[in-house]
Amino acid sequence: MQKLSILGGGESGVGAAVLAKQQGYAVFLSDKSSIKPKYKAILNTHNVNWEEGKHSEAEILSASTIIKSPGIPDEAELVQKAIKKGIDVISEIEFAYAFTQATLIGITGSNGKTTVTNMIYHILKNAGLSVSMAGNVGDSFAYQVATNPKEIYVLELSSFQLDGIKTFKPHIAIITSITPDHLDRYNYEFKNYVEAKFRITKNQTNKDYLIYNADESSITNWLQKNKIIAQQIPMSIHPILHENSICKKENKLEININNKIFSMSLDHLNVQGEHNAKNAMASSAVAKLLKIRKDTIRESMESFQGVEHRLENVKTVNKVSFINDSKATNINATYYALDSMKHPTIWILGGVDKGNDYHELLPLVNEKVKSIICLGVDNSRIIEAYGNVVDELFETTSMQEAVAMAMHLAEDNDQVLLSPACASFDLFENYEDRGRQFKDAVRKLI
């Protein structure tokens, strides 16, 4: 019996364990931290051997394959030991790929990937197809392959997940954007991060498709220097010359695939903003490649409600509107959020800095922001960037304190924006926890 070790007892690790057990592997799962009760229950139900609070090195390194959590860097000592021993170290995405014949749609990008994943799923579900979301959303890919197989999977893929692939390939790949993010994981070299994102297309053939944002030089520069085999479909907010393309013309999206043109008014979009126009371009192109009816695409775009924690209008309290953009974990995502503000803004930001250049936001801060509330353990770089730019800058250490401070500072018609531009792990479990705490605190305001 082939032995498989899994590092990490979260969503991806537990899903991989269930699939591996189903496929006849001898499975050992190890987590240096504690494992949540819900995951322990799943592991016990499937008779998986597991440990927490330590790594039993000899046991782990006796496997022929190791599946590691996306959160564990390749530089980790145990991972390096495994690689030196010749053990195959892969991601859960790579492992699950070997056990499904489903059509795979893979979406990656610094921003927009969650919205595009949800949009595509919404369209395909409305079309009556056998489809599910996985990767960074919902139950893990491996767990779904094991317990709830579908004909199509829409996979939201982070650069960390793509780092661990060897043979995995989606039939349709989408790169929504590549702007500096997670640079702490890539030796503070942007080019390393770009390379990681483009791994999504490395195994594609000429029967597969790559949809990409042609308005970003980080993407177009890479494509000019590197040959890819997949059929390319560029998307742009400007008219574009390419045999297959998606662009914006006046107030319409125009999708030209295999010389068949489909156009749709942006008025059909239930979610507004230039970034959502791009998200709609990518999603509609996938729908056309899968031969979904035009009416279904339009109806789906009209009914799509957006994604929780992404420019989510929470509540208006005494003429002050509160907006939850907790999913903005990098500068570029926050740029879109600030750019969409229409009234004087009290901006709540901060958390774990991933190599941000806060000065990129200075023009928008000057134009839109009246007060800044820092919400993090270390706010020194934010204070350095904006301390002399806004009249009021405060430091807080809890969401309740930050929201109360914002309400105290706000005047009629002001907007309070939680758009942290940072990861959440200093004060919160994840960005969802941060967003929910924000909404809870706002709803308790009188």
UniProtKB/TrEMBL annotation:
Sequence ranges assigned to domain Mur ligase C-terminal in this UniProt record: 309-422
Keyword Ligase annotated: yes
Gene name, Swiss-Prot/TrEMBL: murD
Source organism superkingdom: Bacteria
Cell compartment(s), UniProt: Cytoplasm
One of the GO biological process terms: regulation of cell shape
Ranges for domain Mur ligase central: 107-287
Enzyme class: ligase
Keyword Cell wall biogenesis/degradation applies: yes
Natural source organism: Psychroflexus salis
Keywords from the UniProt entry: ATP-binding, Cell cycle, Cell division, Cell shape, Cell wall biogenesis/degradation, Cytoplasm, Ligase, Nucleotide-binding, Peptidoglycan synthesis
Protein name: UDP-N-acetylmuramoylalanine--D-glutamate ligase
Gene Ontology MF terms in the entry: ATP binding; UDP-N-acetylmuramoylalanine-D-glutamate ligase activity
InterPro entries: Mur-like_cat_sf, Mur_ligase_C, Mur_ligase_C_dom_sf, Mur_ligase_cen, MurD
Family listed: Belongs to the MurCDEF family.
Function: Cell wall formation. Catalyzes the addition of glutamate to the nucleotide precursor UDP-N-acetylmuramoyl-L-alanine (UMA).
Binding-site residues for ATP, renumbered to this chain: 109-115
